[in-house]
């Protein structure tokens, strides 16, 4: 990565502003999954061990009304962080003002402070989400250096990332660095053969990803609901399967552009209702009845995809192969997940919220080289788009020795 990281800057005695992604799931004021807090620990610990004074902040959910504030406070996240770090985390229930400024002034080397949900600022004219320049400038004035470790919001230009970077030297934390190295490495300089496997509900969500990966990958395997728009574009009867009529022309163009590179399923698991309690059958993609819908890829397709995956040195997976939430239609996703997880000597990456959830649910999380923490951000990265939260960080030295 050509961006500076926490390792490239002096931290000792510095007030270090750290944008983390503590947008954790909560129920009744309790955190139900602390993965994101755990994932930020290496950066926070490194700053503290090197004598920095860490000032942490994050968004949590969306804030549309005064009532949202009660359930969207970062206090529980600060408490969980204190447990994980084994040290005090001073929580300031404000996003600006005298109390926050005084607490920062009192902070000592190696101590941690966390302030309130950055989106509390959205109640007053969406200042955070619309990157109000005054807000970014104000937050920047609170510290000496800015560390961005929030990959999950790197695809958005908000005051708490881009707004601060405009006013202060900004570097990447370890989590953000890891995401960029894995996803960027896989897309821009992959070990070949590189195989992309794409699924999920809609072609329209993933057009950019398919287009970009058709240029970069050696094979692109398509499953999930979006396979049917492609199959229909080939003239097949897809019955009641998911189809985006307005994307048929585009699907035709992608099929033409992709040629042998684009591999489609040969069989599907079909049912008459969108339900786990209905009858289903495995059927060739050429034999769907008018009243059936395809809800998963079939076993022959899993075998076909597994054969393509067998020789891969880099695999990028985005999107489940079927309606994996229903057990009768989860076998395609499980089969593909297993095929990727069992590859030896390949770099394997999952980018996409539902596919990551599927892999974790199946107990394969450890078998992948990297599971991205940011669904939206990883998708935009796979599309080849520049992420504003990354672009706004300071570039690494060109080799002249400057710091
Ligand atoms: P990701 O979050 O990994 O990027 P998406 O959000 O694009 O994935 O898509 C996931 C959704 O796609 C799941 O809820 C799944 O049920 C749905 N899906 C997959 N295959 C089908 C299908 N054949 N018909 C309808 N929905 C499908
Ligand atoms: Mg999703």
From TrEMBL:
Pathway: Carbohydrate degradation; glycolysis; pyruvate from D-glyceraldehyde 3-phosphate: step 2/5. It catalyses: (2R)-3-phosphoglycerate + ATP = (2R)-3-phospho-glyceroyl phosphate + ADP. It holds the Pfam family PGK. GO terms for biological process: gluconeogenesis; glycolytic process. Substrate binds at residues 21-23, 36, 59-62, 119, 156. (2R)-3-phosphoglycerate binds at residues 36, 119, 156. Its EC number is 2.7.2.3. GO terms for molecular function: ADP binding; ATP binding; phosphoglycerate kinase activity. HAMAP family: Phosphoglyc_kinase. It comes from Turicibacter bilis. This is Phosphoglycerate kinase. ATP binds at residues 206, 294, 325, 352-355. Coiled coil: none annotated. Monomer. PROSITE patterns: PGLYCERATE_KINASE. Belongs to the phosphoglycerate kinase family. Keywords: ATP-binding, Cytoplasm, Glycolysis, Kinase, Nucleotide-binding, Transferase. It is found in: Cytoplasm. The gene is pgk. GO terms for cellular component: cell surface; cytosol.
């Amino acid at each position: 990565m050509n961006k500076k990281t926490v390792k490239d800057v002096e931290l000792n005695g510095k007030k270090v502003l750290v944008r983390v992604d503590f947008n954790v799931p909560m129920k009744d004021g309790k955190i139900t999954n602390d993965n994101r807090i755990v994932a930020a620990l290496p950066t926070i610990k490194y700053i503290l061990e090197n004598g920095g004074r860490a000032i942490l902040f994050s968004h949590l959910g969306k804030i549309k009304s005064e009532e949202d504030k009660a359930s969207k406070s970062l206090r529980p996240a600060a408490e969980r962080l204190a447990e994980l770090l084994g040290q005090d985390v001073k929580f300031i229930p404000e996003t600006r003002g005298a109390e926050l400024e005084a607490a920062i002034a009192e902070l000592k080397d190696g101590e941690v402070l966390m302030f309130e949900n950055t989106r509390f600022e959205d109640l007053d004219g969406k200042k955070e989400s619309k990157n109000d320049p005054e807000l970014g400038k104000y937050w920047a004035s609170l510290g000496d250096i800015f560390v961005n470790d929030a990959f999950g919001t790197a695809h958005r230009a908000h005051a708490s990332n881009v707004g601060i970077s405009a006013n202060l030297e900004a570097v990447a934390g370890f989590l953000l660095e890891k995401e960029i190295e894995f996803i960027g490495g896989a897309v821009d300089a992959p070990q070949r053969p590189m195989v992309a496997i794409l699924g999920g509900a809609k072609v329209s969500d993933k057009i950019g990803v398919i287009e970009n990966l058709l240029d970069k990958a050696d094979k692109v395997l398509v499953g999930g609901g979006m396979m049917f728009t492609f199959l229909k574009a080939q003239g097949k009867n897809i019955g009641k399967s998911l189809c985006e009529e307005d994307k048929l022309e585009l699907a035709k163009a992608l099929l033409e552009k992709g040629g042998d590179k684009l591999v489609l399923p040969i069989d599907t698991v079909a049912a008459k209702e969108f339900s786990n309690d209905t009858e289903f059958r495995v059927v060739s993609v050429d034999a769907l009845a008018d009243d059936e819908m395809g809800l998963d890829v079939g076993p022959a397709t899993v075998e076909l995809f597994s054969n393509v995956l067998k020789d891969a040195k880099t695999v990028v997976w985005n999107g489940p192969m079927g309606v994996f939430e229903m057990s009768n239609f989860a076998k395609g996703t499980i089969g593909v997940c297993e095929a990727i997880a069992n590859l030896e000597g390949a770099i394997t990456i999952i980018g996409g919220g539902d596919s990551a959830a599927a892999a974790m649910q199946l107990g394969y999380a450890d078998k992948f080289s990297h599971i991205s923490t940011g669904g939206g951000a990883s998708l935009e990265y796979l599309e080849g788009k520049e992420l504003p939260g990354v672009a706004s960080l300071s570039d690494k030295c060109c080799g002249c020795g400057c710091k």
